[in-house]
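Dear colleagues,

For the upcoming journal club I promised to circulate an example of a predicted protein-ligand complex. I picked one with molybdenum atom because it came up in last month's discussion. The inputs are reproduced below in full, followed by the predicted structure.
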Amino acid sequence: MFRSRAMRKVEEAGYDPERLPPGQYLTEKWPVLHAGTVPDTDLATWDFKVSGSVETPVTLSWAELIALPSTEITIDIHCVTRWSRFDTSFKGVHWSELAKLVCPKPAARYVGAHAEQEFTANVPLKALEDEDALLAYEADGEPLTREHGWPLRLVIPKRYFWKSAKWLRGIELRDHDEPGFWERLGYHNEADYWKEQRYEF
Ligand SMILES: Nc1nc2c(c(=O)[nH]1)N[C@H]1C(S)=C(S)[C@@H](COP(=O)(O)O)O[C@H]1N2
Ligand SMILES: [Mo]
């Protein structure tokens, strides 16, 4: 069976080479990537909003958010710039806990993730409902570092990592899809790394 050089390296590192999506290579490091600057956040004034196509919009303080039941996931990160990092663990709140509070309307099918500095990312609501998606506040057993999105980031493991908005401040449910920051710049709307959905052009 054909093995690319990148896949052979994955094998040499002791992993199943089939874990590496096409066009990716494995890195041990965790690169930092974003547009703009790392925001200054004060947890005392920080809040998190769930809005849009919901019965009961909510605004949660940091204390209220972390008081919600938490879950942990261990996932592989695949960045569109071609690095992949295996087995990063995240702890945080699953969307289902927030859904209990807001009651999504039947028409809600899409999500706009809102982050600091007007950054946005869009995914289908199904992707957020997936059991391995998370609103994460810890990575590898430690609070997120500022560069990786502290205090809260989205993690959507089945898509390229640009969908996983750092410095997340809100989730807006919609009855229609709207492209986010990178999607407006030509990145693929779906971002399935097994299909190499990197760019629309
Ligand atoms: N708020 C915000 N989140 C963002 C981005 C961004 O520009 N702003 N970039 C995305 C991109 S392109 C990637 S690859 C990942 C990188 O996450 P990391 O720096 O934790 O590796 O964050 C995503 N989340
Ligand atoms: Mo990225």
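Two points we might discuss: Residues 30-35, 79, 115, 119, 148-149, 161-162, 164-167 surround MTE (ligand 1) (CB under 6 Å). Residues 51 and 172 are 5 Å apart (CA to CA).

See you all on Thursday,
B. R.
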